[in-house]
Amino acid sequence: MLKELKILFRHGKQYITDLEGVELTPLFRGRPEIATTITASEAKELEALCPTNAISVVPFSINLGKCVFCKECHFYTPEKIRFTNDHKIATNDLNRLIVKAGDRDAIELDASLVRKEITSYFGKALKLRQVSAAGDNSAEMELNAAGNVNFDVGRYGMEFVASPRHADGLVITGPISENMAEPLEICYNATPSPKILILAGTDAISGGIFADSKAVNRGFLSKYHVDLYVPGNPPHPLTFINGILSLTGRLKKK
Amino acid sequence: MVEVENGSSLDIGEIPIVSYNQFYAEVDRLMENTSVHCVSYYAVPSDDNFTFYCCLADDEEHKLYVLGHEQKKENVTLPSLTSKHYAFHCFEREIHENFGINFSDHPWLKPIRYPANRYNQHNVIENYPFYSIDSDELHEVGVGPIHAGVIEPGHFRFICNGEKVLHLEIMLGYQHRGVEELMLTKHTTLRRSILVESIAGDTAIGHSLAFAMNMESLAGIDVPDRLQLERIIALELERIAIHIGDTGALCMDIAYQLGQVACEALRTIVINTTQLWCGNRFGKGFIRPAGSGYPLTSEVARQVLENMETVEQRYKQLTNRIYTLPSVLARFEEIGILTPKQAHLTGIVGPAAKASSHKRDIRFSHPFQYYRHLEFLPVVMETGDVLSRAMMRRYEVEQSIELVKLLLKKRQSMISEEVPKPNYSLQLKPNTFSISLVEGWRGEICHSAITDENGNIVHYKVKDPSLHSWMGLALAVRNQEISDFPICNKSFNLSYCGHDL
Fold this sequence. Notes:
The complex is a heterodimer of chains A (about 250) and B (about 500).
Chain A lengths: L1 H10 L20 E3 L5 H10 L5 E2 L4 E3 L8 H5 L4 E3 L14 E3 L15 H7 L3 E7 L5 H9 L11 E3 L8 E5 L4 H13 L5 E5 L1 H5 L12 H5 L4 E3 L6 H11 L7
Parallel strand pairs in A: 6-7, 6-8, 8-9, 9-10
Antiparallel strand pairs in A: 1-4, 2-3, 3-5
Chain B lengths: L1 E3 L3 E4 L5 E2 L1 H12 L4 E10 L3 E10 L4 E10 L4 E2 L10 H11 L2 E2 L35 E5 L11 E7 L2 E8 L7 H7 L3 H9 L6 H16 L5 H29 L3 H22 L19 H25 L3 H7 L7 H7 L3 H6 L6 H4 L20 H26 L20 E9 L2 E9 L5 E7 L2 H11 L8 H8 L3 H5 L1
Parallel strand pairs in B: 3-6, 7-8
Antiparallel strand pairs in B: 1-6, 2-12, 4-5, 5-6, 9-10, 10-11, 12-13, 13-14
């Protein structure tokens, strides 16, 4: 017992006290900011460079639902594109994931799109079933990390559960492979209503680098309503936590 | 047989293409030596033919051999190497599934991952031909594809006698995303660099290093010592982080909560170190062909060193406690044994092989990048049970931390060296074969590429260590209580997406 106490003492307090106020390391690749001075020829070059076609030329923009945060556009035009360490990039509106030249605003949820039952049913506790549909295991590990001793999302009454029958919704990672399409559908149908659907990671939101693969089948997404998009490659645990807190109306009022 | 160096390339014409009989005899002769194993064996289709390339590694002699054979494209049936050397089972199954080539006496010619472009489109994942035993005494337990935790999908089918597992069949393929095909259809080197980072996101550094080494050897360039050294620091950080996480996961499965949470916190320190360095906790974006956008600065290097010292002290204190607790040892000892013979026969790699007394580590047998300048000796354990695989991680973490500290010291004499920027427009040599092996935290990663007469990549083969090692897990759980499956599984911690590609 004494040995255990010594270990505990040495480890000290590990949990992040203020999950909403914490700031990530400067190099973290979060919400980009684009200068309005990007020239047409630069825009063309950047469009061709972007590995996942996240860049559009007119108006110049980066779609965070497609972006894999490789930062190569920054390396190409360091003065004009920079990735800030703002990790709060989850939203429920795909249009808000498109960051245009000159945009400096934080990415937030569109409150009018949040279904009413979400706050009334899940405002105090949220149990989620995670389904990896060809995720590369980095997003899965980050979702696990959200519940670990550092991030401790359990403090909000949120956790991942083993059975879809116990779940209030699904969190999908990965581009959804053909071979996982049916199991995913079965799992979704096994989850009682009302239920929420979250896509975590660029692979899940747009297919990412796998978007044009023949082995991917994203038909599931055209059938069901998605409540939250959590971009990232993989999404940082704090991005995920911030997203679900906003969705369920748990963020402290500023 | 032609001898190649790890991370090198050669004119495709230099690889001897012999008759199948000769090929079989040659491979058979080499495989008689217990230190030899197959790292990759695959078929490349052309208009009329299949050309097969086989690469064998000798762990003790530090040699790498490549040999090939060629077959006309009609109704190919070949005697299988698997019937004599089981370790070939996964490679021959893959070739069979992709191209319909038959291996006449293969004992287990089953689908491996149901790829989108498989030869027989009537084979679907819902109809996997499970092995079964007709008996009133036995029952079957099916688990997955979706599991109870936040993990990747795969199906496990147990045949049990009471609580005891007689047989486990592992059926994968749910994670198949068509990686190898995308490697060819994505034409820019940057796109391919992003893709390889997602082969297995938990091994982003390992796989992207294997890719970068291939590109560099195909382009005929060497990267400076400083970059080679910084790359292997990142590779060791990846190993340290995952091994610590696995230690915690093993503790979780036996309900030893202190071990679990303390490891979680330590892993966070390590992956946050990687994030401090390159902005991503998994090191995505750090390794690129010919250079890096994130040279290690002195400030970050100092922080890496400081964090390594913290983690080292705390991990040692913690593991001293974990591995002296009778309640932990009672759960790990003599559970899930993979005997040295089984490990040899199935061609297991990585920590699982080393825990079953095989000195199989690419850092030792075929050193790459800056490991060439180090005298590295792998950790080897004897018993092959869950405890030895857990202890493997403990010693490898300690070893890797020592290594990082040593590398950081060596780096100080190199800081004047410039780290070049990545180069995404490398001109690759025409008609060339290249191969690179990297010891990732799961074991040996192998990437191999072939270019055409214009220097375009026409074939890209990826092998994740999990391809070999899943069979090891299936064998290790035989005669165990089914309730011990989770700790057996965690002690291997194999990749689903790396296997399914």
